[in-house]
Structures are given as structure tokens and as C-alpha cells.
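Hi, here's the filled form for the chain we discussed.

Project: internal
Contact: R.S.
Residues: 457
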Amino acid sequence: MKGLVYGIILGAYVCLFIVVGILDAKKKLGFKDFIAAGKNKGLVLTVGTLLATILGASSTIGIADTTYQIGFPGFWWLCLGAIGLILQSLLISEKIRKIDADTLPDLAGRIVGGSAEMLISLIIVISWIGVIAGQLVAMSSFLTFITGINTRWIFIIVSVVAFLYTIFGGQTSVVKTDFIQLIFIMLGLVITFIYLFFVRGDASGEVFRSVEFLNENYRPVNLFTQFFVIGGVYFLGPDIVSRNFISKDEKTARRSALTAGIILIGFAFLMAFIGLWAKKNIPPSELGGMKTLFFIINMLPLPVGIMLSIGLLSAILSSFDTCIINAASIFVRDILRKESVMLVRITVAVIGVLAMMFALSGSGDIITLLSGAYSIYTAGAIFPILIAILFHEKRIIRKNVWVAAVICGGVLGIIGSYFPGFISGLPIPAFVKTNLSLIGMGISCLVGLFSVGGKRS
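And the returned structure, exactly as it came back:
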């Protein structure tokens, strides 16, 4: 009975987004409206959609599980992302918005050239299928838990609904639904925190006393690696930068990144404390193989549990829709070199089906899928793009060397993420074997610096 109540409420909630998409589709959106929401969004909407994009499955379900396993240092995943976002605000947000690109590969193309645009497009579209699949893996496990029915059809139906509102309204609908979803994410998590610590209160004092930012499960080397791999995606990832493109001007872009970064630090503490509360109060024998936040839902009064459930579904959808519209837009705009709303809609459907198949194959958990995809992108693309932005209109960028920088880093990221068995058999130091993505970033940075030529006349 409880599962039926949850199912009906969540079903009605998801259908709301279909209505938003249909209303936006009736407006006959132009191509730039469809992929960049008109490039006219103010501070509140830009911050809202930026936060909703970031607060996905990895930042909620994933962090709670990680904190349960390794302790409070699970906090660093989101905190390092926040630091990356703040650094973007301070260093490059205004520069990016001033170039007035439509997508991140378009930005690379305007600075370096067409070969750079194509290469970055291919890296993003291919690796982001894993990112999208990671969100769908979370959705599948969540729906199975909340309904009590382990069936693929419920997962497919909800996934198709998410495809549809994105297909109908594009980026314009995504921005609107993101804002709605963010409200429920915030309400669900804050109310849950208040209930656990101030109403239920079990071992709350012990939770606060056990806060440690590093421990035997999370050492300085892990912090150093994640600063670049995770922080890099928040600093210059395609989904984050897409929120820069929709802002109305350079100042809005900078202020949005700074505001969102500061708020995210608060969310990092919130999620880590919830996960740590579970670690102190829920024995592993009781948790079993269940996700930490799912177990907590069962402990909550029905109204609080419903609010957290809506918040978690919102978190999954808000990251999923941004990832899929951006990947589809990049494929059409930067690979096919077309400006067709219909082609973007078709591509959303195709990428969605591919990601759904990947998710249904059981190829990994949320953090594994996201970390693998991030490792490829950050190793190959972050530093070369950053170098190109910083030297834009100041120095000549040698295209062939710049492309070589991206390829060198990306190849090491792929090998490190997807061929660990091959690496383990090679006679190389253990540090190299476990940090190929980080080494790839270093190499792409060095080669990228060599791509910088003389001053522009």
C-alpha cells in the first residue's frame, strides 16, 4: 500500500514535466532557444538550473553511500566540485560568456578551429553516454525500491517520460523543470536532515564528534586526484558551461557560478552529515545491499519520506535532462554541423535509448559510471580548453599541437578507466597504474602549453 502511495505521487509529479514540455513545444522554439534557452536567463534561474544540474544521483545517493563506507571524507566529492565552480567564476566565467558560443565544442572551435570542435564533441558525446547511464542506473534502483516491484517496464516508462519533456521543449523546458526540481531537492534533504538530527536524534552528538576530513580510507592522494578529476568537471565540464551560455551576460555568468559554488559547499556538509548519521545508526547487517538514502526513507514518517523521495527523483531527473539535451545539441550542432530542432529531438531519443540499454545491462553503479566518464573528459579536455580560453585573442594556438594534447590525455584516461586489467600486467609503478587519468591531465597540460605560439598582431 505504501509503495502504491509513493508511486502515484511520483507519477503525478513526473507528468507535470510533460505539461511543461508540451507548452514550450507550442511556442515553436528556434534552434538557439531549443539548445541554449535563448541566452537570456537572469541570476536566479541560472543559479537554479546550475544547482539542479549538479545535484544529481552522484551528489545525493552516491555521496550518502560513499560517506557510509568511508566516513565524513565522502564530503569531498561535492565540496571539490564547489571549489571548481568557484574557481571558474574567479578565472574564466566572464571570458567564456564573452565568446558567446552555443556549446563547449563550439567554444573550442571558435578559439582553436574546426578540428578542435570535432574532437571535443566526440569526447563529450561518447563519454556522456556513461554519465547519462549513471543517472538511469540510479533511477532504476530508486523506482524498484519505491514501488517494491523489480520490473524494467516501470523504469522504461519513467525514462521515456523524461525523454519526452526534453524532446518537446529542449533546453527551455529543462531550465524551467530544473528550478522546480531544485525546490524539491532542497526541501527533501533539509527536512530529512532536521528530522534525523533534531527529531529522531539518535547518536547525533557522536556524528558531529566523528567528523574528519581525511582518514585511512581517504588519504591526501585521493584528495589530490579528485581535486583535478572531479573539480575539473565542475570547473569546465560541458553541462556546467552550458549554464554559462544560457545566462544573459558576463556578470550574470560569473555571479551564478560563484553563488552556486558557495551554496554547494553547504550541500556537501548536509549530504555528508546525513550519510554519517546513517553510518553511526544503521548497522551494516541491517542495511544489507540497500542504498543508504533508500533505507532512510523507510525510517521516516510518511510525509517526510514522500518529500525525500520526490527530492531524490528530482535530483536524478535534473541531471539527466541537462546531460542528454547537451549531448544531443553537441552531436547535431558540432558534429553534424546542422541547426535543426528536429535532429536534436531525434538525437535525444537515440542517446536516451543507448544510455537506457547501458543502464539495463548492469555495467556499474552510479559513482563508477560517472567517475569513468569524467576521467576521460578531464584527462583529455580540461587543460587544453583552459589554456585556449586564457590565451584567446592574446596568443596564436597551434592547432595540431593542441589536438595532440587532447588525444594524449584522453587516451590515458580511457586506458586508466576501462582497461585496468591490461594496465595491471604492465611492469610500471603502482602509482602510475592507479593514476593514469591524473597523469593524462598533466601530459595534456604540458603539451597544451606547447601549443601556445607568438602574440597575435
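Let me know if anything looks off before we file it.
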